[in-house]
Write a structure and sequence with these properties.
Rossmann fold, 5 domains, five-stranded mixed sheet, 13 strands, about 50% helix
Length: about 950
């Protein structure tokens, strides 16, 4: 296999087609092959019989997409064969530039004629050599005139056979039959003319003609192919033809369909339903025609670089970009650009690099000019680059009807435009991460543009990070469930995704918290109208309506959120924090259901980063306003829709406005300002993975006894989702073997993942705890974890106390929390205790549920625990036993009698009806022993520790 050591692309010299030294061509192997074919035609055995003629079609085809470098390839071939003494080079001809009434045959004949006359003139004027034979010019002109008599037979040349003169017998005898004879011998006359001109005027073996881009204009493409088929049929004419193979095919098919005529296609194709038969005929004719005119054995394909980036003969590794006197491997440049755009995961980089390499070479050059700076060795993707590279993809954006003016100029609408694009293309489910992995190139191009703009905009307008998690991440997962629900309830499901989008204002620049509240209200309407076991509304808890509104009850006030805030003398700051996730879905009959949504919290973070960060107190006060939103109702319920975008405001207890925690608001200002000023680009792919992991991890609220427990767990799920996906994105997974499971009802998995940074040989006497430094590299995780508003809902006392057998050095737990939440995390308001007294719908907080922090460390949830082998993970069962202090030996006693364990769990307030039985424990022991054969080392360690307690 021919190979070249290095291909250098000088960006400044690569914006237009030009010839290069063939050793520096990317398609060097293809070049050498074409060069060999041309030389073989030159070295063919000479035919001494000047009158012999054998028809051949030996045109060489150079196929490739627009912008792949075909013209440069031809220019380099031309430059190479300009130096060949056996070839008369006629140059590169673009048939699309020929005048409308011109013909490719006449154009080439004119080139030969003009070159020959110029050569004859030079020979006649040359005093340093003998004059040519006196009959050369006369013979040349004679053959040219003979050839000219057949030219009127060419398509669109001369007069047609239906002219009036054909009715004159004398005309037919003198001119008509003579012209018909000339047209019949045109091919032979042309070959004799060419051979004579080459031998007696140029003293060469062949003419070389390049036909570039004949596929662009169908009206010119077909005559070119026909000219090659009819007249360029002898070896003295070497034709190199370039274009897109797909468009050659379309040009031929267009002509063949036209040959059938409208009447035949209508009467037989449409009326008699034989269109498929005609299509098969066209396909067969197209295939045979192209195989004859452009023989497969003389075809080369200038493939995209992505196809050259495969296997042992990987040519892309040899392509370098030149900048000043330095050279950089193109693959490494792309990796560097992607890394700066937040795409750090090696596997994900391959996806984007493959797309970049699949782009036409011309587009890659323009892209690199836009992103690769003059400063040596550094990428410089800046705002100016956005405009300079945008035009590369405008055609694809226009095809997919993306409003690229808004996309370029209004970052506030980027997620709305992305959502609209994905829904229009029916790719929200598998395309929401905007990876260019579709079979549709234009979709991939648009997805890449969104990635490019979004990832860069996260550094300059970071609110779109939170906005994406709502408008696309959440909606993608809801879309799946809504569609699935509609299929199951087809007769009753009179809702639609388009109505959902419109009512919730997802295509508008509406306040984010209003959007998430409308989403919660809309989904409540679906869940209310269609009675099903599993609710669509994930990440949401239903709570009792506030006691101080006419929408709620004035009796039995304990357990209502505003009552608990007032009875605990909650400060203004705590009231604001408590109401941020809360809203009401108001029914058409004036009733309503209050709910508590983690997406409302994310929406508020979005607005804090988007608005003036120095006016945090007023912003939080506004966004914590409790509002009721009319919900559309479906199924048997009367249907209504909301036209109140903001929702109806309801005044609730907020303490005394002078009684606020100034440190909290100042810290929130610092947090918002730091995000705005220091945030680096984040990958849209990363945010998509986080959104999906988080959504499907949210458990049903029935897993919890009160709002505090539930929302604490929602926050832990949010943080763990970011932590896990950012570890993977930053290629740290090999170094830190994280647990990919989700912390459904306890914090244990999140704690384990954090403690993965703890060295295995950690000594409790170690004075310095410096093993969590790498967490600071997880910048998105730190954004969320260090936010005082996020921390306010976490049960900090129970965190990292999920398992009693974890041994911590003195002060180590505090050290861990400071590394995660910041040094002053204990200085800010925390409302976990207040929320733990707030009722979830259908549950009342009892005195038995109100445990001290030390008790909660042992039992962070009082959900009845049921051992069901085959339905519950063995590891989760054992971790629960460890948490509850239940040893292996105690379980062995259950085989004899279950009384002691049953009584103990009853004392703790557990329902043991389906918990302990001889058969269940016996099956558990068998499952554990079997699990030990296949489980991971970490799981095996946990099981063995428990058995040895």
């Amino acid at each position: 296999m021919i190979s070249v050591e290095k291909t250098i692309i000088d960006l400044e010299k690569s914006t237009d087609a030009d010839s290069f030294e063939h050793e520096n061509l990317i398609y060097y192997e293809e070049f050498k092959l074409v060069e060999e074919w041309i030389k073989n035609q030159l070295n063919r055995p000479q035919d001494n019989d000047k009158y012999s003629f054998q028809r051949q079609n030996n045109a060489i085809s150079v196929f490739g997409r627009r912008g792949c470098g075909k013209t440069t390839f031809l220019l380099t071939l031309k430059s190479t064969f300009d130096k060949n003494n056996d070839i008369q080079n006629l140059g590169i001809l673009d048939p699309t530039l020929i005048e409308e009434k011109g013909h490719i045959f006449l154009t080439i004949l004119s080139l030969i004629k003009d070159s020959a006359e110029e050569e004859i003139r030079k020979q006649e004027e040359c005093i340093c050599r003998d004059k040519p034979e006196c009959g050369i010019r006369a013979t040349f002109e004679q053959k040219l005139k003979k050839l000219a008599r057949g030219i009127p037979s060419l398509d669109h040349i001369g007069k047609s056979l239906e002219e009036e003169n054909w009715q004159d017998p004398k005309y037919i005898l003198d001119k008509g039959l003579q012209n018909v004879s000339a047209s019949r011998t045109l091919e032979k006359d042309f070959s004799e003319f060419v051979r004579y001109t080459l031998k007696h005027i140029f003293f060469k073996k062949a003419f070389l003609i390049f036909l570039d881009d004949i596929d662009i204009d169908f009206s010119k493409g077909w005559p070119v192919l026909e000219t090659i088929r009819k007249y360029f049929t002898f070896p003295e004419i070497i034709v190199i033809i370039s274009g897109d193979e797909r468009l050659f095919s379309k040009s031929v098919r267009k002509k063949q369909w036209g040959n059938f005529g409208k009447a035949l296609l209508k009467n037989e194709g449409e009326v008699l339903h034989k269109m498929e038969e005609y299509n098969n005929l066209v396909t067969e004719m197209e295939s045979q025609y192209l195989q004859k005119v452009l023989k497969p054995k003389y075809q080369i394909h200038l493939r995209p670089l992505s196809e050259l980036n495969i296997g042992k003969n990987n040519r892309v590794d040899n392509i370098f970009i030149q900048e000043d006197s330095s050279e950089y491997q193109i693959i490494n440049i792309y990796k560097n650009i992607l890394k700066q755009l937040g795409v750090k995961n090696a596997y994900q980089q391959e996806t984007y690099i493959d797309f970049l390499l699949s782009m036409p070479l011309r587009s890659q050059v323009q892209f690199l000019i836009g992103v690769w700076p003059q400063e040596k060795g550094k990428s410089n993707y800046n705002n100016d680059s956005i405009s300079s590279i945008f035009n590369i993809f405008i055609a694809d954006l226009a095809e997919k009807k993306v409003n690229y003016h808004l996309l370029r100029n209004n970052p506030y609408l980027i997620n709305s435009l992305a959502l609209q694009f994905l829904l229009k293309e029916d790719k929200l489910f598998d395309g929401y991460q905007m990876q260019p992995i579709s079979l549709d190139y234009s979709f991939n191009a648009c997805a890449f543009v969104f990635t490019l703009f979004f990832n860069k905009r996260t550094a300059t307008t970071p609110f779109i990070i939170f906005d994406y998690m709502i408008r696309i991440g959440l909606i993608r997962n809801l879309y799946v469930q809504i569609q699935d629900r509609k299929e199951k309830e087809s007769e009753k499901a009179d809702y639609s995704i388009n109505e959902f989008i419109q009512i919730c204002g997802l295509y508008t620049d509406k306040i984010s918290r209003n959007i998430t509240s409308l989403i919660g209200s809309y989904l409540h309407g679906i869940d209310l109208g269609i009675k099903v076991n599993e609710k669509i509304n994930k990440g949401v808890c239903e709570i009792e309506s506030p006691y101080s509104t006419v929408l709620g009850s004035y009796t039995d006030s304990a357990g209502k959120i505003d009552f608990q805030l007032k009875s605990s003398n909650a400060s203004f700051s705590k009231c604001i924090i408590a109401y941020i996730p809360a809203a009401m879905a108001r029914h058409f009959n004036q009733g309503g259901q209050s709910f508590y949504s983690i997406y409302n919290l994310i929406a508020v973070l979005c607005e804090l980063v988007r608005r003036d960060p120095n006016d945090i107190k007023n912003t939080l006060n506004e966004l914590s306003q409790y509002r009721a939103y009319f919900t559309p109702q479906y199924g048997s319920a009367k249907r209504a829709s909301t036209n109140d975008e903001q929702g109806q405001e309801i005044d609730l207890y907020k303490g005394t406005k002078n009684d606020y925690d100034d440190l909290f608001f100042k810290k929130m200002e610092v947090w918002a300002n730091e995000i705005i000023s220091k945030t680096k680009p984040f990958s849209i792919h990363l945010l998509g993975k986080i959104s999906t992991r988080m959504y499907y991890a949210f458990p049903d609220q029935n897993e919890f006894n009160n709002l505090g427990e539930a929302f604490h767990q929602f926050i832990i799920i949010l943080l763990n989702s970011i932590f896990v996906e950012e570890i993977i994105e930053n290629n740290l997974e090999k170094e830190i073997l994280i647990n990919r499971d989700n912390p459904k009802s306890t914090s244990n998995i999140f704690e384990e993942n954090i403690l993965k940074f703890r060295p295995s040989n950690y000594s409790k006497n170690k004075a310095k705890h410096n093993y969590l430094n790498k967490i600071s590299d997880l910048s998105l995780f730190k954004i969320f974890a260090e936010c005082p508003l996020i921390q306010a809902y976490i049960n900090m006392d129970s965190l990292f106390n999920e398992r009693d057998n974890r041994k911590y050095a003195e002060g180590e737990q505090v050290y861990i929390k400071k590394n995660i939440f910041g040094n002053d995390y204990t200085s800010f308001p925390n409302i976990y205790e207040i929320l733990s007294n707030v009722n979830l719908k259908g549950k009342k907080v009892s005195t038995q549920d109100k445990k001290t922090s030390s008790e909660q460390q042992k039992t962070s949830t009082n959900t009845p625990f049921k051992v069901r082998i085959g339905q519950t993970e063995i590891r989760n069962i054992i971790e629960r036993f460890i948490k509850d202090g239940l040893t292996y030996k105690e379980l062995q006693n259950v085989i004899e009698t279950g009384k002691s364990i049953t009584e103990r769990y009853k004392q703790l307030g557990y329902d043991t009806s389906a918990y302990v039985s001889k058969s269940a424990i016996s099956d558990l022991f068998k499952a554990i022993e079997k699990r030990l054969e296949t489980c991971s080392e970490e799981e095996k360690r946990i099981i063995e520790e428990w058995k040895n307690q």
